[in-house]
Amino acid sequence: MPEQSIEMTPDSSVYKALLESTKAIPWKINWQTMAFEYIGPQIEALLGWPQDSWKSVEDWATRMHPEDQEWVVNFCVKQSECGVDHEADYRALHRDGHYVWIRDVVHVVRDDSGEVEALIGFMLDISERKKTEEKLIALQKKLEEYSFKDGLTGLSNRRMFDTVIEDTWLSAQRNRQPLSLILLDIDHFKQYNDLYGHIQGDECLRRVSSVLAKAIKRPKDFVGRFGGEEFVIVLPESDADAAVRVAERCISELLREQIPHADNSASQLVTLSMGIGTIIPSQNDSLTEFLATVDGRLYEAKDAGRNRIVAA
Questions:
Q1: What is the Cα–Cα distance from 75 to 86, expressed in whole angstroms?
Q2: pTM for this structure?
């Protein structure tokens, strides 16, 4: 392969040999002609394109991922015009069609009058670093997921509920739309644990959670574990009738499960008590007071004998 020419001082051949023995790929572009005056032979091993095929910045720009091309070119041109050294990470096209993550480190060379004369720099393969970063991002997302999920049931946890209810409340307030909330409790769950043991109690919680998840039909609806044997359902843009229908569906779905509970005074099966509230919140309404109202209705259902729904 013919080697591109580059002006060298008598001793610079030593530096050239050193540069071409590293993984970093040296290059030089003439600012006036926008032509490559030099690029290291390592470029062929990294990207597959022959050294002598890098003629101008057009070759550099077109061998770039379409999603990166515009912003990288614009950024590098702007920084170079201002005489500012800079770096850019982008995906470069390999000759066989796949992409390689590159970091270009650019130094702007000026002439005696201060005008930009040339750009010199290094291309570095950062593919492995990017893979590591992507793994860390994926791990971070997983950790965030876990921090908002109840480990036992797989439902969203109280922390997630606090975020969802606040956002839903503000949206309902802003759009003047109804918001319904269901608080529900497994009846006599302490007695269930005492009778069947905590391992069976955990299984009961998982089965009830599955029932509740199946009972809500819209993607915008939310079901979570509020704590212990208590659960919560948030129904945006749902009036009181719609909320009662969801609550009734929870009861009928749970009945199909036929989970025995010999110490349940309301039934010989696992049952639920529910409190429901619906509101079109105004600026004068308080989310805390609304939650307290719904919680009060849940306790009314318990006081009235359990295995029932109390709504306004």
A1: 9
A2: 0.59
- Please give the pLDDT value at position 279: 97
Strand 116-125 vs strand 179-186: parallel, antiparallel, or unpaired?
A: unpaired
Q: Indicate which residues carry an active-site annotation.
A: 229
Cα(276)–Cα(247) distance, rounded to whole angstroms? Answer: 8
What gap in Å lies between CA 189 and CA 175, rounded to an integer?
39
pLDDT tens-digit profile of 12-52? 665 566 666 668 999 999 999 999 999 999 999 999 999 99
Whether residue 311 contacts residue 294, with contact meaning beta carbons closer than 8 Å, is answered with: no
- Average pLDDT along the chain: 91
Instruction: Determine phi and psi for 216, rounding to 5 degrees.
Output: -90, 140
CA 87 – CA 172 distance, rounded (Å): 46
Structure tokens at 236: 């945006």
Phi, psi of 32 (to 5 degrees): -70, -45
**Cα dist from 186 to 36, 153, 209, whole Å:** 74, 14, 11
